[in-house]
Amino acid sequence: MTKSFIEGRAAWRLASSLSAADEVTRHIGENLRRYAKEEDATFLMICLREIIINAIEHGNLEVGYEDKTKAQMEGRYFEFINERQAIPKYSKRRVTVEYSLTSTKATFRISDEGNGFDHKKFLKAGMEATPELLEHGRGLFMTLNAFDKVIYNDIGNQVSLIKTLA
Asked: What is the pTM (predicted TM-score) of this model?
């Protein structure tokens, strides 16, 4: 099928759950591995998962830096996420993951229903590795290095990721 394959597209609306992020990333990875080297596909999937988790955590569930840090330090991060998911304001929010895959290019669009973030400020500073990236922001940092283009909408609740495949 690889030789006759022209383009595949899919879209999912996900509940704001970490397991949904894992499942959709696994599914996309299975298709991507047909057209990219194993290590490249794996790295792209790690980055894609991080971006989907960001959409869930920081977008839909509005988890801030301080709240996440505190929950992690207390060893109750997953419990904290479950509590946020149960709040009516956040419980109905969804993440949309769309992708298009050809033998030469992979394009992803991830959208959340949150308020967005100041991506311009982050992208300007985000290319420099800092100690803070060990705790927060490493997913976006890795993504900026993995994809050829990382394009946010104006408010920062949708990102497009484009990768040329060898």
From this structure: 0.89
